[in-house]
Design a protein that fits this description.
Strand order of the largest sheet: 6-1-2-3-4-5-7
Order of helices and strands: EEEEEEE
Helix content: under 10%
Strand content: over 45%
Largest sheet: 7 strands, antiparallel
CATH topology: OB fold (Dihydrolipoamide Acetyltransferase, E2P)
Structural class: mainly beta
CATH class: Mainly Beta
Number of domains: 1
Distance between the termini: 18 Å
Shape: globular
């Protein structure tokens, strides 16, 4: 699914246009963000693609949802 990752005043945020959903990223598997899982406040876990550490935000990427608490 397409996901836009951006930096806000409160930290990182993920927006899923198809679901019209924007949630803060509350947990990051890799400190440089890319190539690992992130957890959104709503419980969704997304696998982000491998990108260079210095990738500029905001960016839209193809992520894979692996679970949620719902």
């Amino acid at each position: 699914m397409k996901v836009m990752i951006r930096r806000t005043g409160a930290g990182l945020s993920a927006y899923v246009p198809k679901k019209d959903l924007e949630e803060p990223i509350v947990k990051v598997e890799n400190e440089d963000l890319w190539g690992g899982c992130v957890t959104l406040r709503n419980g969704w876990r997304l696998v982000l693609p491998e990108l260079p550490r210095d990738t500029r935000l905001p960016i839209t990427v193809e992520a894979r949802k692996i679970s949620d608490k719902d």
